[in-house]
Design a protein that fits this description.
By secondary structure, this protein is an alpha/beta fold. The protein has ten helices and 24 strands. Helix content is 26%, strand content 26%. The chain has a nine-stranded mixed beta sheet with strand order 7-8-9-6-17-20-21-16-22, with helices on both faces. A six-stranded mixed beta sheet has the order 11-3-2-15-24-23. The termini are far apart.
Length: 461
């Protein structure tokens, strides 16, 4: 039996993207009769796999990502003010460290570029023996924190504030409008607000989108063993790793691929890493530490010989929660890109040892856990990303259809600004200056294609 109903807007996906879209449409824009459709409970497929970081620290070209993220963080901070006890946020920053002069040059060049894009001022602390004006993250809260970044080149100052680091660390860039937040709680808070404004969540699967006169006419969903047709003129794709498949329902080949990414957590019961440390990133390549005997054994086996290779930059981690948990993440091998996600999600059983040995290169105390990691837990999800790792936000070719996706590993933090921007598109409100940078049709512009050919850093950690 087919049931027919109507809705002003149908959103495919109850992850953070879909919830943010519903929140901004219903709560901030006042639209009525909004329906979210998802076969899973809200915030359970990919949104609960996040490392929960946020930052306004994004490379060019242009300042569009910085502007979008500043807007997103503004919204996050506003929600935090509404419910500070429930919606936890930290403003400890991101710390990019290097142990080479070349690394310092690269970090400094990046910092000079990004601060000019609107992330704040750059303050450089040289090793000149004078009193430094560097303000540690323990000396401020969320709303009185500095913006921009501090580049610490004074090794004595590094030892003072970060005594647990290797003495090889020659420079640290502390980016300031960065930290992490209780992403799940923020998402549920927005969902609750949306539900109070009449938004409905249907546990079902979008099977088809019907068109009428060249525009969205209805959405067919499979629910409770039957089919339901929702008559609507506006359909939003917020399907996370399944956005490409949903795009095909309206004849659109969305320019995204998916990559599996993993994180691991374990109990730092030796308290090697201070609990008030910001997100720490080692910006240099790494060789894992092995004994001579271990090195010889690994070299004998072709399946393990790769563990002796030089590993790519980017091992990073941070304290998690109020206990002694430490979270580590590292895309230490070239990411495997796929057109469609595969489930059950693949696991990476080698991540705990590789990540701990990699981070021990810069935090030597972690060597205490070599070969005896206390019950590590590995989790992960798919990054659905565009070629230049910038989101897709705005209308699609079929009139009445929209996309909020392509979040490529920064979905939780960008979702607030992305939902705000998408709602402006759907409600035909005033668009911010950065809106064109995230339109799906940007790839049809020959000038943008030329920019893509010369694209540099993606901003992905």
């Amino acid at each position: 039996m087919t049931r027919i109903r109507t809705a002003e807007v149908v959103i495919c996906g109850a992850g953070i993207a879909g919830i943010s879209a519903a929140y901004h449409l219903a709560v901030m824009q006042g639209l009525k009769d909004i329906v979210i459709v998802d076969p899973l409970p809200p915030l359970t497929l990919t949104s609960d796999k996040s490392t929960e970081g946020y930052r306004n620290w994004w490379p060019g070209p242009g300042n569009d990502m910085v502007c979008l993220m500043n807007r997103s963080i503004d919204i996050m901070e506003g929600l935090h003010r509404e419910s500070p006890n429930r919606l936890k946020m930290h403003r400890r920053g991101y710390l990019y460290a290097t142990g080479t002069p070349e690394g310092i040059d690269a970090i400094r060049a990046t910092a000079e570029q990004i601060t000019k894009l609107g992330a704040g001022d750059l303050r450089i602390h040289h090793g000149q023996g004078g009193d430094s004006q560097y303000l540690s993250s323990q000396e401020h809260g969320i709303f009185d924190a500095p913006t921009g970044a501090d580049l610490i080149l004074d090794t004595a100052l590094i030892r003072k504030h970060f005594p647990f680091l290797t003495t090889d660390a020659l420079g640290i860039l502390h980016t300031r409008r960065c930290g992490w937040f209780a992403a799940q709680q923020f998402g549920m808070y927005m969902l609750e607000q949306a539900l109070e404004r009449g938004v409905q969540v249907i546990n079902g699967k979008v099977e088809d989108v019907e068109t009428v006169g060249g525009q969205v006419g209805a959405v067919k969903i499979a629910v409770n063993g039957g089919m339901e047709t929702i008559s609507t003129r506006k359909f939003i794709i917020a399907a996370g790793p399944f956005q490409k498949a949903v795009g095909r329902l309206i004849g659109v080949d969305l320019p995204v691929v998916v990559e599996p990414h993993f994180k691991m957590v374990f109990s730092d019961h030796y308290h090697v890493v201070p609990r008030d440390l910001g997100l720490f990133i080692w910006n240099d390549p790494v060789h894992l530490a092995w004994t001579d005997e271990e090195r010889a054994a690994l070299a004998e086996d072709e399946a393990s010989r790769w563990l002796l290779d030089e590993f790519r930059v980017g091992v990073h981690g941070r304290p998690e929660g109020e206990g002694d948990t430490l979270l580590l993440q590292w895309a230490y091998r070239p990411d495997r890109q796929m057109q469609e996600p595969e489930y059950p999600f693949p696991n990476d059983h080698q991540l705990p040892e590789v990540a701990i040995r990699g981070m021990a290169r810069v935090i030597p105390g972690l060597a205490k856990y070599f070969n005896k990691i206390p019950r590590p837990f590995v989790d992960g999800g798919y990054y659905a990303r565009t070629v230049e790792n910038r989101p897709l936000i705005g209308p699609l070719p079929l009139e009445g259809s929209y996309i909020i996706g392509g979040f490529g590993g920064f979905g939780m933090q960008v979702s607030f600004g992305a939902g705000d921007l998408l709602a402006a598109h759907v409600a035909e409100g005033e668009l911010p200056s950065y809106a064109p940078a995230f339109l799906p049709d940007r790839y049809e512009d020959p000038r943008y294609q030329k920019v893509l050919r010369d694209w540099g850093a993606s901003g992905q950690i």
